Amino acid sequence: MRKTFTAFANVVAGAAGKAQTFIIALLIVVVWAVSGPVFKWSDTWQLVINTGTTIVTFLMVFLIQNSQNRDAAAFQAKLDELLRAVETARDDFIGIEHLSVEEIESLRRMLEEETGECKDGHKAHASVERLLSRY
After folding, report:
1. 37 and 68 both lie in a single domain
2. pLDDT tens digits for 33-51?
């Protein structure tokens, strides 16, 4: 079932991001809006668009979340591989995405303390300082 859902999510996410899909959705809204006078702006007329958009939004949330979860996991695996492959990299960072927000913030502060200080008092790496000095 997971493979089927993943394949389905990929197809829908790919289709949802295309200009043609946006144009179709826009045309549906335009047709709905133009049909307002025909249906005398009735409650049923309003309910059609409200129900349709709610259902599509509800389902798309799960498909988008699935795509984002897979993208984030793949990206993390690639970063972990780079950390593992580069000799000077600290492979202690592999898997830090599983830490709590507080632990990650603490780690971030520790890393910032290893760098130099910028003119305005916050911490920055020397290369970042050079980049900022260009502007």
Report:
1. yes
2. 999 999 999 999 999 999 9
Residues 101, 94: contact at Cβ < 8 Å? no
pLDDT in tens, 63-85: 999 999 999 999 999 999 999 99
Q: How many CB atoms lie within 10 A of CB 79?
A: 15
Cβ distance 51 to 32 under 8 Å?
Answer: no
CA distance 46 to 22: 21
Count the domains in the chain. Answer: 2
Question: How far is residue 112's CA from residue 3's CA, in Å, rounded to a whole number?
Answer: 41
pLDDT band of residue 122 (cuts 50, 70, 90) is low
Secondary structure (3-state) at 108: helix
∠ CA(68), CA(72), CA(59), 5° rounding? 15
User: Which DSSP letter does residue 14 get?
Assistant: H
User: Would you tell me how many other CB atoms lie within 10 Å of the CB of residue 130?
Assistant: 10
Sequence-ordered list of residues with C-beta below 8 angstroms from that of 54, at least 6 positions apart, any chain: none
On whether both 104 and 85 belong to a single domain, the answer is no
